[in-house]
């Protein structure tokens, strides 16, 4: 644990240095948004920066810093907010209701793809310049290149799932170039083709199936988890069928041979003082005094809003208040849980107040809050700096179960592992019994809800299982074009070649 902590401190020192190095680049990139909106113009040219191994490794770290800006809020907004798990909180929602009410349009389209393209630009620079630079070992160079390929693949996969068609850029924009700066949207099949190509490139560059570069940077196990995710998506939604799902299963099974395991206590997975534990495969790193809060500061409850007559058990779970309850776990979500599931009290808290007619009975709904990413309390202030998990072992096990079921194989073994940890001594009565493919799919999707809620997965799960327009109340009877997010009017205004998604 101490070695991990020292490693994180060293990484964070490097991150701070990079943040200072790239500040001029960020400022110039911001000034160029009037012209670009796909890739920023880099002022760090080949003649002034890309000279040695340290330059490349520093830029790789900077790429992760810039990616973290999307992890703060956007990954959650894209991957969870439109599902059935959220509703109104105690505070003004500040427009967040547009997600769970599914009323997004081009004027209120949610976060755009600008930051993702900035990270893609970082990856493109690394892939352009790193091959010609001497490293003290070929392995280190390959790891840097592999991380750039993996990050580009992940960003384009998000873009493909959220917006569908999108411009494909594989070259950095280092000066004003209208050909590369203003591009129309490529078909989503071309976007996914690049994603798959980058995944294969990354896997070929990692020398072994380890986490030698940490669990908050891309590694071979993490890229195999991404590959399984991608091929499940294309197998189910893009015509890949049995072939792609078989590829997904093979990739996911390879993750099991890495140094991964389910933690005995579900709550321990997410804690600030337990980062990079064996369940984590890939996470976005947060550190006190180095990064700001993540999205959970908008789903907690402010200290002065915790009611004095609230349920003592709920108040104990909540602890010190913090943040603002701008949206909250919905009633539809809360009503699906049983009290004997140990994940419940590690995921959210239901705050009821005392019934005025029945002293000691707390049955008056007041609020709910997510406590999975609750951070820690420092001098009376709650800081939301738990790492944002992109992939973990339980997710992989459930994707394996999903792939097996789609291939007419028995998913019992993986479902059993998840439920045994979830219910502990209460496991009898919660055994998974394999049934029809449809019944198994329903059980796997439900298990993913309990296991992975508020981890930015639910919206994509609903789409992949074909259940968004059945299980999200605000989408029942709505048109199919709402599977995709709208393109923001700002994005269209900045690039006249970008066309709006149909239906918006």
From TrEMBL:
PROSITE patterns linked to this entry: PROKAR_LIPOPROTEIN
Domain SusD-like N-terminal: 88-232
Signal peptide coordinates: none
SUPFAM superfamilies xref list: TPR-like
Domain of life: Bacteria
Lineage per the UniProt record: Bacteria, Pseudomonadati, Bacteroidota, Flavobacteriia, Flavobacteriales
Protein family per UniProt: Belongs to the SusD family.
Protein name: Membrane protein
Alphabetic keyword roster: Cell outer membrane, Membrane, Signal
Organism: Arenibacter certesii
Tagged with keyword Nucleotide-binding: no
Any single Pfam family the record assigns to this protein: SusD-like_3
UniProt GO cellular component terms: cell outer membrane
Subcellular location: Cell outer membrane
Domain RagB/SusD: 375-470
